[in-house]
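Data card: per-record layout.
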Amino acid sequence: MVPQAAAASKVPQEAEGELVSLYQAHKKIYPRSVSGLFSKWRWGLVFLTQIVFYGLPWLEWGQRQAVLFDLGVRRFYIFGLVLYPQDFIYLTGILVISALALFLFTAVAGRQWCGYACPQTVYTEIFLWIEKKIEGDRSARMRLDDAPMSPVKFSRKAAKQLVWIAVALWTGFTFVGYFTPIHELAGLFASFSMGPWETFWVFFYGFATYGNAGFMREQVCKYMCPYARFQSAMFDKDTLIVSYDVARGEPRGARSKKADPKALGLGDCVDCTMCVQVCPTGIDIRKGLQYECISCAACIDACDTVMDKVGYPRGLIRYSTQHAMSQGWSRSDVIRHMLRPRVLVYAGILLAIVVAMLVSLTLRIPFKVDVVRDRGTLARIVSGGKIENIYRLQLMNASESPQRYKITADGLAGLTVASEGTFVVEATQARWVVVNLQLPYDGAPAGSHAIHFNIESLDSPGKLTEKSVFIVPR
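The structure for this 474-residue chain is written out next.
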């Protein structure tokens, strides 16, 4: 009976299933500070991008903000360039150029945009720097998080959060300053009298910066950013990526500084894990190419520092390609193989679009015209037995000075402008004008006839022609 009872008691334990969670608990990453060539480049771009972002809205161009996307009046000001909604083609061109440039750069050098200039990376670096200054280095931050709540811990955490919130709100304020004149916005912000639109976007963008850079950090790069998912479509074995030299580094293992690694049967990797500790996404680059890698090269700086200390050559982790690592190519071979068909096609298309954009902007006539027929009066017979059509024209002056415009019409014999034909439009303004066209009674058969409005600037070179129709009643 005893054996049977023992067997019976084991059945429920064997039948019990193991509970498996479908979600992995997030483990906070504490990147170690690192110094080196690529760290200097990264911080240089942090300073450059933020000087441009925070400083550009405060620049003046003439009597206005140099860069302003004024949605209220539907005009974009970019230094001396004034764009209207009708210039949407230029926005399309900028987006296409940005996409192709990203494809080209990714095919050549991988995710270096992510590692050096992406806003998520830039603000994460800034927030980590603030955290380090207030809470200490990596080990100090880990000890602080593990310690029970105390006045010291609370004060440091609170100070960090306050500085984060201040930076985030200033970032949101600056962002809105590109759409609302920033001097005006500053006065409203200081007097707590901002409108609902400005208030919403300042706090929304500030909250996004605070959450993404302060808390989510690498989670955005690993799980939310689509670029990490489709980058493999642009990668190949000749793409420059952060690479670990397996042939040189393996087998890895600890050893004394004076030991001969060859005698111990070891590679150059001392298994110090510094490359893992400095990684902002927490990966081990020694496991090969991973989609989480943002090519920030922090592991290269860390590994080179360790190699210097143990007296080994630098470059155990370096920028290289998969073909170069497997076939032992030199740097010149790597560069030569970068100029492959995919890269040349991307570069050719990108160059053609950029040239087309520049030519179009150079030849662009600095005014726009919209023609709208007066629907209240399609056609009428006026004194003198003439047929009259009424039109409304919107004249948009995209220059920085007042302009005079002369309006004429052609397309039918005897067609004349019966109203005022010259109009003045102030700098960077738009004006609706009424234009009356008259035609002799027998000047055309009944029906709709194509005509053209000719608008000429009298103060600067430029002439536009707009199509319309003239209706002759039955």
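Known properties of this structure: Residues 367-472 form a domain with the Immunoglobulin-like fold (CATH 2.60.40.10). Confidence is low (pLDDT under 50) at residues 1-15.

See the next section for split statistics.
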